[in-house]
Structures are given as C-alpha cells and as structure tokens.
Design goal:
Helix content is 42%, strand content 17%. The chain has 330 residues and is of the alpha/beta class. The protein starts with a strand and ends with a helix.
Length: 330
Amino acid sequence: MKLLVTGGGGFLGQALCRGLVERGHEVRSFNRGHYPALDVIGVRQLQGDLADRAAVLAAAHGCEAIFHNAAKAGAWGSYDSYHRANVVGTDNVIAACRAHGIARLVYTSSPSVTHRATHPVANGTAENVPYGEHVKAPYAATKTIAERAVLAANGGDLATIALRPRLIWGPGDQQLLPRLVERARAGRLRIVGSGDNLIDTTYIDNAAQAHFDAFEHLRFGAACAGRAYFISNGEPRRARDIINALLHAAGAPAVTGHVPFRLAYAIGAGCEAAWTLLPLRGEPPLTRFLAEQLATTHWYDMTPAMRDFGYTPRVTIDEGLARLAASWTR
C-alpha cells in the first residue's frame, strides 16, 4: 500500500517508516526537514509545514492510509505555535483524508491528554480515565483538542484511531535520554518527590508495533475504530528505578538526590515566570506540568489494546535496556 507518515524523521517516526517498509509498503514522509536515514531505507521525503493545508493535501495525494505522528512536543513555547502544529495540522490531515478518500488514519496521541495535576492513574484505560482539566502545558492542551478531532472524524469512509504511547525510549532516541544523561553527568538531575510512584514506559519497538497492529485491524465498524488507547510496555516501575536503569544503560551516574514535590512545583512556576519575562533561550529546566508528571503515578491497562487489535509488547523492559546499552555510544 501507499502510506504517508507525518513526522517520519523523528524517533517514533523513523521506527514507523522502517517497519512499514519492511512490511512491503511504499512509504512517504512529510517532514519539516530532510533526514538521510529515511533516504537509506527508500522513503520518499516531502518537506512542508503541517499548518499549510495545501502542502498536506499534496503530500497525501495517492495514499491509502496516514500515520499522523508529527507534532510539536516539548515543555515550553507559545500556545499559538503548539496550536498551529497540533490542532491546525491535525485538522489538515483529516481534511486530506476526506479530500482523497483515504480510509484509515492512525493518530499518535499522548497520555498527557488525561493529565489532571497530581491525580494518580493506576491500571487506567481510555474508558475510565477522563480528559484532563485546567491543563497548564500547551502541548497537552493542544493534543487533547487534536485527539478529540481525530476520534470525531471516524465515520463514513474514514476509520480513525488514537494511540497514547507512554514515555517512549530506546536506541535512536535523540531527546529524552540524552537530556537525562547530560544532566546526570553535570550533577543537575534530581528525583521529584520520593520516586516511589509507579510509571509506565514504552520501548520504541513496542510503540511502533502498536501502530502496526492498529493499522492492520482498523476499518470502519471495527472494535478499535473511533477509540483511543493507552500504549506501554505494561511493566510499571518506580520512577526512580526506571530513570536510573536508563542512566545505567547509557553509562551515566545514578541520580540519588530528591526534591520535594512542592518545592519542585514552586521552582517550575519560577522558571515559567523567568522564561516568560526574560529573553532566555531554550526550554526551562522545570515547569509545573513537568513536576506534576514526574511525581505522580501513571500506569495503564493494556487489555483494551490487546482485545481490540492484538497489541502485545514483544520487548520487555529488561531486554530493551540491554539493547539500549549495546547501542549507546556517547
């Protein structure tokens, strides 16, 4: 089949492109930049902005399904910049599906759409965990709007699904782990709260596999059509344990220091104020949203995904850590 992957140059995007090519599909990727790694595997790259409807329509022409993975992520930035990428961009992808008669849309969402301060999520499913309220982070707020739009678009000749992978990690990560390692080596990393809170994470191959499984089962009227699903390894661990396991795999020192949640929250508020009022570059080291995420229990029930489209994590956390250690060269 001819498939479009938005954001194919990113961490998950490249895993999606590789897996789809290996499955015999003709894959094109819509990116803001150009990625030599996609050239190597034969993915046709089209450059453009998700907020440009004409560019998205052109990229989707002739495709039979879309994996909409592209998004503006991160913990900081103007609401408008997130809205353009995540809301306007998703609306344009849905419009492209309608315009070209594309029958399947697999959307990469985020568990952060259910963020509610420090309210714990234990064994959660999309059915029993509501959308978040009063979300402080523009990423989570705009991903919520986008996910709702994707699910509402299910119907007629278009079948849609939203997947919410939790904290993706593994070989090839250029964002999460490198930042953790840099801060750990500089002695600037602390555990927020006790670190005893259970959290789910997702090895990269499992995150991609969930998308492939959903795609294979997705069609209008299928059990998974028009629904959202949490995705993870299904192996919740204490926050401090998984953070230190990742650092160990990368040859970085363990983090032993702690910051009480209330202090971390106050620091996050102060950082937000400073980055708003002063011409400071990059992202603040901590935000209120991030402090809440780091200190709160978040783990999920994989039964709905297993039941509706056969998702089963194939790589355990321990096996993934071994693979990460073998691949880490920094």
